[in-house]
């Protein structure tokens, strides 16, 4: 887990009631995190904390763009993302994180939200990220088609097993 001073939240310094802050996350943040999925991006992070005694309800809203590799042509592509997350924290005897609950050492009182925010960003990225049709690198797409299994069989005549041919007659036009 990385630590960045930007997202180290001093819980004890927060006043009772609502506290808000706005952060800008850029390439330096992703470099400090050193995670493999995202290395570049420009995002805005809106942070809201509601303190009631030693219990803190933290709301995060992240919105902006990240740059990831296209799954087809491997060129860098811009991907807009937006996500919200909630984290509950309280002061305790030692630092423990369990899902959406964090216990922060009461002596220190500082919560490092760097990795939590990164996970919020990573979860907003779709599993499949590809350019819009026609935007991929044409040379890479041509090479991919040439080397794919379908490209090798383009000259072959496809024969259908006669047992399965009867099933084709049952197919509807839906």
UniProtKB/TrEMBL annotation:
<dbReference type="Pfam" id="PF02620">
    <property type="entry name" value="YceD"/>
</dbReference>
<protein>
    <submittedName>
        <fullName>DUF177 domain-containing protein</fullName>
    </submittedName>
</protein>
<dbReference type="InterPro" id="IPR003772">
    <property type="entry name" value="YceD"/>
</dbReference>
